[in-house]
């Protein structure tokens, strides 16, 4: 940690996508930044998303046009900066006359007034109008437009029940959410920020307009004090606790915690497109190709009252999602087909909405000076708009720092993303050419994780044996060492569930072997750093 007498410009609390995005933007503008995360990067909400850069088609029903437009524009800005961890994806929206609006949306209320005979059903023309807006609000340049499908003849209709004859197909983007967080943290550090993981903020108080922040290394219990001119509270689900208990400010802004759960099943269809399913209750559900051999299904919206309570996908939620997709599938699934579940808590701004589903997903940024020095509290947001949220945060931060440079992050590549959007297959081919021991699946995984840095990670290896111990699937000691040295990984869970999803592949024994290896490696790295 930095010396106690050094005053930083910003102390960012929280190593999720908002905290890391703000740290990167701020460091790139010349501010001195320290980021403290009490666990691993992306260990909470930012690794538990539906993993999409998307405009939020359903938000049109809530008339959140600014949020949708900003999100649609950002899809392609982000895609161009990280073509290794994000890529275009087509979504198939099957249509049936029984589809209904959620009862508390502005659109449903208007339809009930002007077209009461529809009884809450979504007419096909209104869906097509929404997709037209979705195509045009953001000004697409890379992604293809909406089209129609005949499900009786198209391959996308094969997994679906016979009653679905028509579908619309539109574009959005996939993103590896937790890798996005890590790459932002790495870029922030490369631009001068200090990134501290497993570091808890114990307390903060101001003295003469400067924050005195007590930090504690979780693994050792060692404490130190950092001084900072401003605090950014990007604590995610803990944002309210930080306001009340850590900073002890008089802010009246509240957070609404909403749990979103997902299930992962065996692969349910053979093509690489996703489905956007609409339920008779007005809710929507995605079914997305996942990690080659699986299907990701989600999400739910449930109130979550305590940030300290670990979010889990409950049996009721699992059954709800299974029943939801079974209304569409020709071959129904059961909960026995679920191979993994995960759940995250969205820290939404408490706007007084009547339900968790209706609560705004837009971000709200509030500067509070009631404690004597400025704090920027971050509420809500979507992973798609994290970069724009960071720019908005820097607009507010700039009011407390003179001559701050303007925005710079649009289109600037994240580590490993310095190649064209349409050149992924070229990257895979050249990696296989230069490292002949790689098969297509292995090379593709490495490019999708590390982009142009894959060859740096592989180094001078000429055979698979040169990469050291094989832990399972194609995870080797060389890759684990890279993740520990360059990507803040400390334990097997960091590697298997946040830096990758190889937890779906490795057995319990292989995971234990990886943990043993990383424990020994940590001791070596600490010894090297002390020399």
UniProtKB/TrEMBL annotation:
Leading EC class:
oxidoreductase
Q: Which cofactor does it need?
A: FAD
Biological process according to GO: glycerol-3-phosphate catabolic process
* Assigned keywords, A-Z: FAD, Flavoprotein, Oxidoreductase
**What terms describe the molecular function in GO for this protein?**
glycerol-3-phosphate dehydrogenase (quinone) activity
Q: List the catalytic activities from the record.
A: a quinone + sn-glycerol 3-phosphate = dihydroxyacetone phosphate + a quinol
Entry-linked Pfam families: DAO, DAO_C
Sequence ranges assigned to domain Alpha-glycerophosphate oxidase C-terminal in this UniProt record = 409-505
Q: What Enzyme Commission number(s) appear in the record?
A: 1.1.5.3
- Give residue ranges for domain FAD dependent oxidoreductase: 9-355
The yes or no answer to whether the keyword Flavoprotein is present is: yes
Record's GO cellular component terms: glycerol-3-phosphate dehydrogenase (FAD) complex
User: InterPro entries per the record?
Assistant: DAO_C, DAO_C_sf, FAD-dep_OxRdtase, FAD/NAD-bd_sf, G3P_DH_FAD-dep
The similarity annotation says: Belongs to the FAD-dependent glycerol-3-phosphate dehydrogenase family.
Q: What is the protein name for this chain?
A: Glycerol-3-phosphate dehydrogenase
Species whose genome carries this gene: Pseudooceanicola sediminis
């Amino acid at each position: 940690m930095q010396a106690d007498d050094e005053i930083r410009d910003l102390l960012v609390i929280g190593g999720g996508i908002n905290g890391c995005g703000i740290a990167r933007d701020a460091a790139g503008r010349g501010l001195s930044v320290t980021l403290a995360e009490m666990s691993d990067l992306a260990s909470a909400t930012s690794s538990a998303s539906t993993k999409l850069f998307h405009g939020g088609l359903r938000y049109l029903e809530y008339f959140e046009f600014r949020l949708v437009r900003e999100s649609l524009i950002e899809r392609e800005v982000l895609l161009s900066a990280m073509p290794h961890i994000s890529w275009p994806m087509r979504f198939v929206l099957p249509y049936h006359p029984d589809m209904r609006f959620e009862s508390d949306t502005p659109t449903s209320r208007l339809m009930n007034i002007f077209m009461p005979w529809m009884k809450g059903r979504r007419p096909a023309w209104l869906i097509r109008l929404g997709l037209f807006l979705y195509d045009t609000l953001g000004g697409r340049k890379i992604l293809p437009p909406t089209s129609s499908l005949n499900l009786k003849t198209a391959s996308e209709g094969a997994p679906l029940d016979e009653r679905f004859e028509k579908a619309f197909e539109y574009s959005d983007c996939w993103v590896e959410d937790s890798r996005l967080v890590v790459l932002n943290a790495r870029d922030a550090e490369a631009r001068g920020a200090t990134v501290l993981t497993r570091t808890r903020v114990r307390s903060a108080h101001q003295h003469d307009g400067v924050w005195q922040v007590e930090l504690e290394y979780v693994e050792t219990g060692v404490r130190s004090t950092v001084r900072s001119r401003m605090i950014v509270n990007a604590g995610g689900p803990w944002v309210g606790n930080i306001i009340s208990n850590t900073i002890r400010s008089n802010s009246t802004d509240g957070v609404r915690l909403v749990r979103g759960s997902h299930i992962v099943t065996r692969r349910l269809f053979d093509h690489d497109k996703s489905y956007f399913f609409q339920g008779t209750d007005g809710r929507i559900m995605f079914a997305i190709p996942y990690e080659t051999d699986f299907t990701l299904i989600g999400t739910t919206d449930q109130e979550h009252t305590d940030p300290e309570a670990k979010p889990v996908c409950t049996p009721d939620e699992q059954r709800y999602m299974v029943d939801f997709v079974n209304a569409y599938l020709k071959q129904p699934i059961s909960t026995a087909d679920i191979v993994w579940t995960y759940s995250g808590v969205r820290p939404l701004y408490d706007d007084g909405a009547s339900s968790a589903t209706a609560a705004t997903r837009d971000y709200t940024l509030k500067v509070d000076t009631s404690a004597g020095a400025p704090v920027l509290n971050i509420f809500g947001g979507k992973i798609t708009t994290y970069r724009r949220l960071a720019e908005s945060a820097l607009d507010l931060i700039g009011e407390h720092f003179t001559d701050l440079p303007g925005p710079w992050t649009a289109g600037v590549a994240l580590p490993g993303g310095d190649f064209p959007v349409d050149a992924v297959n070229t990257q895979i081919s050249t990696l296989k050419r230069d490292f002949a021991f790689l098969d297509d699946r292995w090379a593709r995984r490495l490019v999708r994780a590390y982009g142009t840095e894959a060859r740096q990670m592989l180094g001078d290896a000429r055979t698979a044996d040169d990469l050291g111990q094989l832990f399972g699937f194609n995870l080797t000691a060389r890759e684990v060492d890279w993740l520990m040295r360059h990507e803040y990984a400390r334990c097997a869970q960091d590697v298997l569930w946040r830096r990758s999803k190889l937890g779906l592949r490795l057995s319990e024994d292989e995971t234990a072997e990886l943990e043993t290896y990383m424990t020994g490696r940590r001791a070596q790295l600490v010894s090297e750093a002390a020399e």
